[in-house]
Design goal:
The protein is of the alpha+beta class. It contains 18 helices and nine strands. The chain binds calcium ion (CA). The site of calcium ion has 8 residues, from loops. The site of calcium ion (CA) has 8 residues, from loops.
Length: about 425
């Protein structure tokens, strides 16, 4: 996954726990960072696993504050982004084809991982595709620096005991885990690089999670989620199996139509509607008139293998796509708490298994672009002198500003995105 998207997703998980906004106003002064790291050294007694002060001090001596962490924490407050843009780009044909190549190339290993952990190989490959576009990941920030910077920008309020397990202390434990991984030589010190949120490797693990759930699947004695695809895949499968559990026979969701007399409760206000507390067997929803949707949007009998408990999830309310989701959706959210991430992974996996896109249109007259189309648009923007951005298929900050400038120059209402309709409008001579 590209870096910006990584920020948006990861931050969705970070924000609720964050209560020290003032700390983000300016870079952390060096003396404050040193004092913070020293303070962390005094808290090793609260670490989730044994860690001595001496080891912490020795390994963090090389640690540096990295202001990209703070800057990234600020990014997410920016402009709105849309489901239809993100899903169009993250599950485009190109990513499906690339994923099918991975499945063909590594089918044996992936089948073994599926058999051992009970998680479909398409889900594992989809996470690989969404997280790093099937690659070794491009994070450039030393994980130790990122983890220490995060821990200092988002300090743990209480010092010891039960608080260590609380959400506010997760950053501290992440820093401790990064130190332990280096101490135990479980990661390669020269290649321990990742994102601002300290996520690293092909499926973007964070240190504390890797320490608990990492799997050495290729059997070389090291859990190497950077260098080894198999280690990364097995670690991800282990995460899904252990945190939340996977119902092997069940899908992640079924696209549905809601009976007319029950639709009022799902009127869209732009926010997602997720009703976990209404989970009940699929057959009970069917008895209330809920229907599955066929290839042309026609209602079909609602039958889910094994008749698991499912609950309604509507990404933007009605009008818009509606789903009944299984526990597998929650399990993906344990990997990354963003609902969009959950739908991106599951839709890509669905397509990798031969399934089709949702049939219900998004409530927009300007659906999202594929990455190839975004690239084409970027090339046009560069050619017309609106930006010097390198066309990469991502509507990042520079591209969005160039789009806005182009709309203004053409005398059209400014907007910082383009879709199928507005891209044509913008590029017409
Ligand atoms: Ca290994």
């Amino acid at each position: 996954m590209n870096f910006l998207r990584c920020l948006i997703w990861a931050t969705a998980a970070l924000l609720p726990a964050f209560s020290t906004a003032a700390l983000l106003d300016q870079p952390l002064p060096p003396e404050q960072f040193s004092a913070c790291v020293q303070g962390l050294a005094e808290q090793v007694g609260s670490a989730g696993k044994p860690l001595t002060r001496e080891d912490f001090a020795r390994i963090t001596a090389a640690g540096k504050y990295d202001d990209r962490v703070r800057q990234s924490m600020l990014v997410q407050a920016g402009e709105p982004t849309y489901w239809w843009d993100e899903l169009a780009a993250t599950t485009d044909d190109e990513r499906v084809q690339d994923g099918l190549k991975v499945l063909a190339r590594e089918g044996d290993a992936l089948r073994k991982i599926e058999a051992r952990f009970g998680v479909p190989k398409e889900i594992i490959v989809a996470i690989y595709g969404i997280e790093t576009n099937y690659g070794p990941a491009g994070g450039k920030i030393p994980v130790l620096d990122a983890a220490l910077s995060l821990a200092c920008l988002r300090p743990c309020s209480a010092g010891t005991g039960a608080a260590a397990a609380s959400a506010t202390c997760r950053s501290r434990e992440r820093a401790f885990a990064a130190v332990r991984l280096l101490r135990d030589q479980k990661v390669r010190a020269d290649n321990f690089l990742g994102s601002w949120a300290a996520a690293f490797g092909r499926t973007q693990f964070v240190p504390d999670t890797l320490e608990m759930l990492g799997v050495d699947f290729d059997g070389d004695g090291v859990v190497d989620v950077v260098g080894s695809e198999r280690d990364a895949w097995a670690s991800t499968a282990n995460h899904l199996k252990t945190r939340g559990g996977w119902i092997a026979a069940a899908p992640v969701w079924v696209e549905v139509s809601i009976p007319a007399d029950q639709q009022a409760a799902f009127a869209g206000k732009g926010q997602s509607i997720r009703q976990q507390d209404r989970a009940k067997k699929a057959s009970e929803w069917a008895a209330q008139g809920w229907r599955a949707l066929g290839p042309k949007g026609e209602g079909e009998p609602l039958q889910v293998a094994g008749d698991p408990e499912v609950y309604p999830f509507l990404p933007v309310g009605l009008p818009g796509p509606a789903f009944l989701v299984t526990r597998n959706f929650n399990t993906i959210l344990r990997y990354n708490s963003s609902e969009r991430y959950g739908m991106e992974v599951s839709l890509l996996a669905h397509k990798l298994a031969g399934g089709r896109d949702f049939v219900t249109p998004w409530p927009t007259d300007d659906p999202g672009l594929t990455r190839a189309q975004v690239k084409e648009l970027q090339q046009w923007l560069v050619q017309k002198g609106y930006t010097k951005v390198i066309p990469d298929g991502v509507q990042g900050r520079n591209t969005r500003e160039a789009i806005e400038a182009a709309f203004v120059a053409k005398g059209m209402p400014p907007q910082k995105r383009a879709g199928q309709r507005t891209m044509k409008l913008l590029m017409q001579p």
